[in-house]
Amino acid sequence: MIRLGIVGSNFGRNVLLPAFRADPRCEVTALAGSDAAKAAKLAQESGVARACKTWRELVDDPSIDAVAIAAPPALQPEIAVRALGKGKAVFAEKPLAPGVAEATHMVDAAKASRRPVMVDFEFPELPTWQRAKALLDEGALGALRHVVVTWQVENYATLHRLRSWKTSSEDGGGALGNLVSHCFHYLEYFCGPIESLSARLFGLPGEERPSESIVALSGAFASGTGLSLSMSAASYLGSGHRLEIYGEDGTLTLVNPSADYMRGFELRFARRPATALERIDIAYPEQDRYPDSRIAPIARLAARFLDAIEQGTTPSPGIREGFRVQHLIETARLSHDLGETVTVDDE
Q: Cα–Cα distance between 91 and 59 in angstroms, integer?
């Protein structure tokens, strides 16, 4: 039995806890949060044996084999580095850190410990996305021409003008760190390395302390394929999340018109000489088991994380993919600061 401790009593308790409990090889034995009293109450309500007063108490507990982190990017590196130093496997959030320098400390700690590190990139765990990947790998679209992402929602933090990492680029978040980090990962999952980026980042009008709620960027993949992305966490009744991939011989789209991050994607595909995209229906019964649509894809990640612990292997997406996305985030921020297109250097 792999004994897991969770740092984070919000996303950690509501999403990570049921995701890891879905695997019989894992027992969640401890929970810690920023509010010790709240964490104790939630642990009792959730049937978790122990509530720790601090994350350090949890990480230092020799009875815990692995640590899952649901903490803001500014806090995650210190937690992860300490856990890895104690010989524990780590399930980390994206982005890894507020910047590349802090993310490098996590990479170094992972190399030194040789313990598995997995990063919570969820979209490629959806069966619709996996079928789209198979079509691309089969060459069903031919040579790619261009890729378009539009993601228009209004998230809770922006709606209520909350000052949190999800709206603040200073803390490693904002729309770029919180949401476009997912896009960077799945774009390279589908289409290979991104070679250059040109980005503009926007807050909301009239704010005393500017947030980062809107991202507009263009770029190019190493293959020469073009990229355009428009993401807003400030779009009232927004159109949802849409990925379009165009090739010489075909087109595929993944479209979710709802505000639910994971549930609702439809895959459509056509190949010349078809005159319309056709829907590809894919069953995903496990997603309907859970109230939160993120639990099912994270359960898939959790299973691979536990496999890696048992087998001593390197899980994917792991520290390498997490660091790559961190590098792309920093490149986009640099492009915004310079007002010009920036080449993505080798890390």
A: 13
